[in-house]
Design brief:
The protein has 17 helices and 27 strands. The protein is an alpha/beta fold. It is globular and about 90 Å long. The two termini are 50 Å apart.
Length: 643
């Protein structure tokens, strides 16, 4: 997986640095017992912001405490990097570290719990670029380190909407431990011990097996006797797994307190609650055919509905409004957010979820039933129009029409929809006018004239950011052609383009470049955003197959998460760093929107620019610090004065 790919930039990950001079002045000689040596003598530990791409060659820095700011209903993340100074394992790796995190607690006794609000994941490289976030065990996990390589752990803190504001503190604890193989050599059971164990367990079984039909008091006696024997076996043979608070496989507290590296985590939770429904509808495609092929589920089967529901619910945590899609001929696209028909109880469950900001209504049935297809659309729309969530509905019919015939298809489908629902919103993505009927002398002018050409058959004009190049001033040319008073909206999208250095989500771009997609949206003033595909990797027919990006697309384009089975036995999807940065960008929009609601949109843009966070598609911060400065400024100027 880790072969570098042509055209993937390093993204500021310090590739190519030599590792000289980092091993400390007095390397520890001979065999090392990690339970007797401070972990700091064995590994470097330091922290990196969520926008850093921490690759295997990342060089150590000083360890500083982590200071984070989060609103309520917000996720904030940080990375902890670990790199071995020496090897203490007898096997091929450098050694094993155990990582654990305490709960975060505030001065007034409120807590954020590990495993519930605090989650850690291991950063795994895809094509040599750090990208996949593979879940680790909570509250204690073990990681095997590779000599001369940096490993990163991604720590996320999710602050619930009802969490009391305040200063929260906790620690991340890293301890070098002995490998199982090193321990087990000295702890293998010999034949005599095995026989003793066998006899004791056999006796337990003989005591409880014949209890069928025996009087209750005898059953109780036998179970008590077996329990005593089992406890004895556990204590005599598995004593290292016992601690005061039950059996846990972790180092004892004294060893931890004396030898471990401790990273202080400070989190300020403030009053602001991010809205339950995201302010910016960000609609992302999920290919249903990719799910069908990889997981072997048949379209319309119970397993199919389950697989779709899992993807739908999982993506909502990223403040994204998913839609499922399948492509027809010449880029016609069937899109639907809910696979169930409008009259089904599941439909309301999906569509009225407050985390969903917009939903796609299918033009044809997602799963064909016995209804006549021609009545289908009319019936669906009649039911949906009676719902309070209808205002979130849109129809996405064609992906990037290129010629008159395709534009006419959009018109015809839209006319039919509007006959049943005059207030329906049709969304069309495009980057050019029809090639065989130029609307104006130059391609850009023709592109700007598309709304005049498509009206009233489209309400959401969704244009490629690629068309603008670095000319942010062209936005006003697009917007001036729209009629917001008639409900017309301007949304944008990215896909293969724009390319480096413009903001996009390709693999190997910088972390701030990923996050900048949403800064750009907010500054340009679009009211929605579309992304064509989040799981569009090459076809595979087994869940655990290696992930391959589609040929002809930049690496990472169309893939924002991975099937869990490609990394472990878990079937939970595995997020990419890029998906986490999309969430951060959507959260930044809520901060900017709050600031603009107090001080006006012009002041919001001024703040984005004067902090150096984002000035234009080729001028945005490469460092993390300005982001913290901007968010801190919004916190300072928008929090209630009594704090």
């Amino acid at each position: 997986m880790d072969n570098a790919v042509e055209g993937v930039a390093g993204g500021g990950t310090a590739y190519g640095w030599s590792d000289g001079g980092l091993h400390g002045t007095n390397p520890l000689k001979g065999s090392i017992d990690p339970l007797e040596v401070p972990t700091a003598d064995l590994v470097h530990v330091w922290c990196m912001p969520s926008t850093a791409n921490v690759g295997p060659q990342e060089i150590p820095r000083h360890l500083e405490p982590v200071n984070l700011l989060a609103a309520r209903n917000e996720r904030e993340s940080v990375q902890i990097a670990i790199r071995p100074k020496v090897s203490w394992s007898s096997s091929g790796n450098a050694g094993i570290v155990q990582i654990q995190c305490t709960d975060l607690s505030s001065t007034s006794g409120d807590r954020l719990l590990v495993g519930q609000s605090i989650m850690f994941r291991r950063v795994v490289s895809i094509l040599g670029v750090p990208d996949a976030l593979v879940p680790l065990d909570h509250p204690v996990s073990q990681i095997s380190l590779i000599p001369g390589e940096t490993t990163a752990v991604w720590v996320s803190i999710d602050v619930p909407s009802a969490q009391p504001p305040g200063q929260y503190e906790g620690e991340f604890i890293i301890s070098a431990v002995k490998a199982e193989s090193d321990r087990s050599r000295s702890q293998c059971l010999n034949r005599g011990e095995k026989h003793r164990l066998y006899t004791e367990l056999r006796n337990c079984l003989d005591t409880v097996e014949p209890i069928e039909g025996k009087p209750l008091d005898e059953v109780v006696e036998r179970v008590k006797s077996a329990t005593t024997s089992l406890r004895k076996v556990l204590l005599s043979t598995f004593s290292e797994f016992f601690s005061d608070n039950g059996p846990v496989d972790m180092m004892d507290e004294d060893a931890i307190s004396n030898l471990s590296v401790r990273v202080k985590l400070n989190l300020t939770v403030w009053d602001f609650i991010l809205p339950a429904t995201p302010s910016l509808p960000a609609v992302f495609g999920i290919s249903d055919t990719v799910i069908e092929d990889r997981f072997g589920v048949e379209h319309g089967s119970d397993e199919w509905y389950e697989a779709l529901e899992q993807h739908f619910k999982w993506l909502l945590q990223y403040k994204i409004s998913p839609y499922f899609c399948r492509w027809g001929d010449s880029m016609r696209v069937l899109t639907y957010t809910c696979p169930w028909p409008a009259g089904h109880p599941k439909s309301d469950e999906y569509l009225s979820d407050p985390r969903l900001a917009a939903y796609a209504v299918p033009y044809n049935q997602a799963v064909s039933g016995n209804d006549a297809a021609k009545d289908y659309l009319q019936k669906e729309v009649e039911i949906l129009r009676t719902k309070s969530h209808w205002k979130k509905a849109y129809f996405y019919l064609w992906d990037e029409p290129l010629n008159l015939e395709q534009y006419d298809s959009v018109r015809n489908m839209a006319s039919e929809i509007h006959a049943y629902a005059p207030d329906a919103r049709v969304l069309t993505t495009y980057y050019c006018g029809p090639s065989d009927a130029p609307l104006a002398p130059t391609p850009f002018e023709a592109f700007v004239k598309v709304p005049k050409f498509l009206r009233p058959h489209t309400q959401i004009y969704c244009t490629s950011e690629w068309v603008l190049g670095n000319r942010e001033d062209l936005v006003k040319d697009i917007v001036s052609e729209l009629q917001p008073e008639s409900g017309e909206e301007w949304w944008t999208y990215v896909c293969m383009g724009p390319s480096d250095p413009h903001p996009n989500w390709h693999l190997g771009m910088r972390g701030t470049q990923h996050r900048a997609v949403m800064w750009r949206v907010w500054k340009e003033g679009g009211t929605g955003f579309l992304y064509w595909g989040a799981n569009c990797y090459e076809k595979a027919t087994v869940p655990s197959a290696e992930i391959r990006f589609r040929r002809g697309l930049p690496p990472g384009d169309g893939v924002l998460f991975y099937p869990g089975e490609a990394f472990s036995s878990s079937s939970q999807p595995v997020a990419s760093l890029r998906l986490e940065r999309i969430l951060s960008g959507l959260q930044d929009i809520e901060y900017l929107k709050l600031y603009a609601s107090r001080y006006g949109r012009d002041e919001g843009i001024a703040l984005l620019e004067k902090t150096g966070v984002y000035l234009g598609p080729e001028r945005y911060t490469l460092e993390h610090m300005p982001i913290d400065v901007m968010r801190g400024e919004i916190f300072n100027t928008c929090r209630p004065m009594h704090e």
